Amino acid sequence: MTETTSGPARGSRSKGSKNKGLRIERVHTTPGVHPYDEVVWERRDVVMTNWRDGSVNFEQRGVEFPDFWSVNAVNIVTSKYFRGAVGSPTREASLKQLIDRVVGTYRKSGEANGYFASPADAEIFDHELTYALLHQVFSFNSPVWFNVGTKQPQQVSACFILSVDDSMESILDWYKEEGMIFKGGSGAGLNLSRIRSSKELLSSGGNASGPVSFMRGADASAGTIKSGGATRRAAKMVVLDVDHPDVEAFIETKVKEEEKVRALRDAGFDMDLGGDDITSVQYQNANNSVRVNDTFMKAVESGSQFGLRSRMTGEPIEEIDAKSLFRKMAEAAWACADPGIQYDDTINHWHTSPETGRITASNPCSEYMHLDNSSCNLASLNLMKFLEDDDAGNQRFDAERFAKVVELVITAMDISICFADFPTQKIGETTRAFRQLGIGYANLGALLMATGHAYDSDGGRALAGAITSLMTGTSYKRSAELAGVVGPYDGYARNADAHNRVMKQHSDANAIAKRVDDLDSPVWAAATEAWQDVLRLGEKSGFRNAQASVLAPTGTIGLMMDCDTTGVEPDLALVKFKKLVGGGSMQIVNNTVPKALKRLGYQPEQVEAIVAHIAEHGNVIDAPGLKLEHYEVFDCAMGERSISPMGHVRMMAAAQPFLSGAISKTVNMSESATVEEIEEIYFEGWKLGLKALAIYRDNCKVGQPLSAKKKEEKAAEQAEPEVEKVVEYRPVRKRLPKGRPGITTSFTVGGAEGYMTANSYPDDGLGEVFLKMSKQGSTLAGMMDAFSIAVSVGLQYGVPLETYVSKFTNMRFEPAGMTDDPDVRMAQSIVDYIFRRLALDFLPFETRSALGIHSAEERQRHLETGSYEASEDDVDVEGLAQSAPRRLEAPKATTTAAQSETSAPKEAHSSTELVEIQLGLNADAPLCFSCGTKMRRAGSCYLCEGCGSTSGCS
Question: Which keywords does this Swiss-Prot/TrEMBL entry list (predicted)?
Answer without folding.
Answer: Cobalamin, Cobalt, Disulfide bond, DNA synthesis, Nucleotide-binding, Oxidoreductase
